[in-house]
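Lab notebook, design round three. We kept the backbone fixed and only want residue identities now. Task for the bench partner: fill in a sequence for the structure below.
Input C-alpha cells:
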C-alpha cells in the first residue's frame, strides 16, 4: 500500500531470509537449493500479498575486517535477531527496503 494507505495492485514484494539454522541459501550451496528462502510476489487486485515460510533464526555476522572493528569500537555484539527482509516497490513510488524481526523468546512456535 502507498504511504497514504491506498492499495497498490501489481506492487512487487521481494522477500529473503535465512533458514531456521540461521543460514542464507548463498551460504550453503549444495545444502540449500538456490533461491531457498527467497521470493518475488505481486500484489493482487486489492494490493494484498501472502506467503508461508519458516521462522528464521538469529545469526552472527562476520567479526573480521572493518565490520569487526566497528563492532568492537561501538561495543556491540555480532548477533542479528531473527528477521525477514523486504523490498516493496510499485510504479510511481520510491521502493522501500525494510525487515520484520521476531522475538523468539516469546514466540510459542520456537519454545
Ligand atoms: Fe539477514
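Proposed sequence:
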Amino acid at each position: 500500500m502507498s504511504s497514504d494507505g491506498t492499495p497498490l495492485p501489481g506492487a512487487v514484494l521481494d522477500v529473503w531470509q535465512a533458514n531456521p539454522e540461521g543460514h542464507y541459501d548463498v551460504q550453503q550451496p549444495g545444502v540449500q537449493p538456490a533461491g531457498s528462502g527467497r521470493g518475488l510476489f505481486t500484489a493482487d487486485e486489492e494490493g494484498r500479498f501472502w506467503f508461508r515460510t519458516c521462522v528464521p533464526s538469529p545469526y552472527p555476522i562476520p567479526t573480521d575486517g572493518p565490520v569487526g572493528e566497528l563492532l568492537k569500537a561501538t561495543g556491540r555484539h555480532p548477533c542479528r535477531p531473527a528477521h525477514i527482509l523486504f523490498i516493496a516497490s510499485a510504479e510511481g513510488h520510491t521502493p522501500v527496503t525494510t525487515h520484520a524481526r521476531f522475538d523468539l523468546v516469546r514466540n510459542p512456535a520456537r519454545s
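Keep this in mind before ordering anything: The pocket of fe (ii) ion is lined by residues 18, 80, 83 (CB under 6 Å).
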